[in-house]
Amino acid sequence: MEEKRIINCKVTDPNKILPIKYKWAREYYKQGVANNWVPEEVNMQKDVEQWKAPNVLDADTRRMILYNLGFFSTAESLTANNIVLAVYNHVTNPECRQYLLRQAYEEAVHTDTFIYCCDTLGLDPDQIYNMYHKIPSIREKDEFVVGMTTSVLDPHFSTDSVENIQRFVHDLVGFYVIMEGIFFYAGFAMMLWLMNRNIMPGIGEQFQFILRDESVHLAFGSDLINTIVQENPEIWTPAFRQKIIDNIKRGVELEIAYADDCLPRGILGINKTLVAQYVRYIADRRLQRIGLPKQYGDENPFEWLSESMDLRKEKNFFETRVTEYKTGSLSWDE
Ligand code: FE
Ligand code: MN
């Protein structure tokens, strides 16, 4: 019997999911299902009061919230489109495709989350959904990802040579490691920092659920990349590894520029220097996760981030409602 391969599996049937070879893909699928949630489960009452009150939130806090809504509102659908239009086509393994379908659904939930936030807060959709054109630091992140992932969107592209498999892995690093693993994380830190101070706690909780999902997307993407490299070791040349490292470093620069723009003056205990340190810290983790050396060596300035999920669980239990599904795991990979 022909061995299953993660890509270029022309011999085995893409509908034949059993027996499963890549057990991690199956596990991520189950974890995604266990983490199920919808935005309407989160109470936005306090956020509406704070947002509409004339002097609860200062101008800098409002700017930080709007910039993050502006980036995420369009980034989620960009990610969904990438999965459905580019990644799915070339990952021929059925257990990985099962996970990709789940991930696509989660991106639809995330897109819905920002519709819900705009609706409940009464935000101007034209303002929020045009920020990725109008705000240079947001536009540059999106353009970088779109530009880095053009090969696989080409209808004539196929993973039929060493060079083309390298292109595919290059683009997967763009989708998973840079977009989902770096470009989402300054925003997570900022919004969860607010939530921990009871500022816009509903939006914070939405971001927390998204973070839990994204950490699974990132883990899947990293295992996908690592497996392609393992099965096609000839692609992993020193020059190609350096190209990937350079792309990740450019992503770090863009994410730090975005954080500077979101948070130009710093707000009570969080500032752009700390966020930049956090971005470098997570970039090192992302690099190591795909077998590349650390580039920065920063310590994590936001240890509290990894604890905030547990705090939220108690809060939901005692004060509001249980939003956690029975089997949902509360751990995530930062
Ligand atoms: Fe998402
Ligand atoms: Mn995602």
Description:
Helix 9 packs antiparallel against helix 10 (201-231) and helix 11 (238-262) runs antiparallel to helix 12. The protein has a single domain (43-321), classed as Ribonucleotide Reductase, subunit A. Helix content is 66%, strand content 0%. It is mainly alpha-helical. The radius of gyration is 20 Å and the shape is globular. Mean pLDDT is 90; it is low at 313-330. It starts with 22 loop residues before the first helix and ends in a 16-residue tail after the last helix. Residues 79, 107, 180, 214, 217 line the site of manganese (II) ion (MN).
Helix content: 55-70%
Low-confidence stretches: 313-330
Number of domains: 1
Bound molecules: fe (iii) ion, manganese (II) ion
How would you briefly describe this protein structure?
The protein is globular. It is built from 13 helices and no strands.
List keywords for this structure.
single chain; 334 residues; Ribonucleotide Reductase, subunit A; globular; binds manganese (II) ion
Question: How do the helices and strands line up, and which of them pair or pack?
Answer:
Blueprint: H1 23-34, H2 45-52, H3 59-90, H4 94-121, H5 125-129, H6 131-134, H7 136-148, H8 162-183, H9 185-196, H10 201-231, H11 238-262, H12 272-289, H13 308-318
Helix pairs in contact: 1-4, 1-10, 3-4, 3-8, 4-10, 7-8, 7-11, 8-10, 8-11, 9-10, 9-12, 11-12
Bound molecules: fe (iii) ion (FE) and manganese (II) ion.
Manganese (II) ion binds at residues 79, 107, 180, 214, 217.
